[in-house]
Amino acid sequence: MAKPLMSIVIPAYNEEKFIGKCVDAISRQTVPRKDYEIIVVDAKSRDKTIDVAKKAGADKVVFEKHMSIGGARGDGADVAAADIIVTADADATPPENWLARIKEDFDKNPDVICFFGPQKPDTRMLKVKILFKVMGAVAWFMNKLGRPYLSGGNSAFRKEAYKKAGGFANISLGEDIELGWRLKRIGKVRYDGKMLTIVSDRRFVKHGVLGTVFAWKIGELQLLLKYKKPGESYASQEY
Fold this sequence. Notes:
With 239 residues, this protein is of the alpha/beta class. The chain has one domain: Spore Coat Polysaccharide Biosynthesis Protein SpsA, Chain A, CATH 3.90.550. The protein contains 8 helices and 9 strands. A 7-stranded mixed sheet has the order 3-2-1-4-7-5-8, sandwiched between helices. Helix 1 runs parallel beside helix 2 (49-56) and helix 6 (159-165) packs across helix 7. The longest helix has 23 residues, at 202-224.
C-alpha cells in the first residue's frame, strides 16, 4: 500500500456493536480507498471489537499503551503513516463526503494546521438535537475568540504540527480540547460547519443529558486547573 493521504484514528473499548458500522462507513467514502488508512486502537476489549474491526476493513488494529482516551488517540497517531491525521469515535457513521471535505479544506488552505467540525446525533430526542446545535454554535464562536473546542470525534490536523504541539495528552477527559489549545499557539485552527459527522445518542441514553454535559464540564474544569491524571474515564464505558 502506497503512503496514504490521511490516517483515521478510532479508539475503541468493547465496541463490537458499533465499530463495524463505523469502519464500514469510513471505508465507503468518495475519496479513493487507497488514499487513506483506518486505524483502530483497542483498549483491551473483552468482546469481539478486534475481529469486527478487521472484518469491516480496518487497515491497522493496535493495542492501547496508555490508560486514557487521550493516550489511545495518541497511540493511534503514533502509527499513522499519513501527513494528515483524522480522529473519529467508534460510534460514528460519517457521511460519504466526510473525508472529501477534509481533504478539500487542507488542499485549499495550506496555511491551516487543523480543521474540526460539528457532530449530528442519530437520535429522536429533541433535547439532544438542540444540545448538539448549541454545541456547534459554541464551537464556532469560541474558535472566533481564539479558543478552539476541538472534538475528538471530528477533527483533523497536520501530523507535523501535531508532533510540534506535543501530541495528545494522556488524560481521560478533554484531551481533544486541550490539544486544540496547544495547536492554536503554533498555527491556524479553523472550524468548518460542513465537515459533519454523525454519532449515536448512547451517552445520553446511559448518562442522561445532564449527566453527559456534567462530565464534559468536569473535563473542561480539569483543563483549566491543569489537572492531568490518566485513569478510567467517562470515555471508557460499555454501551
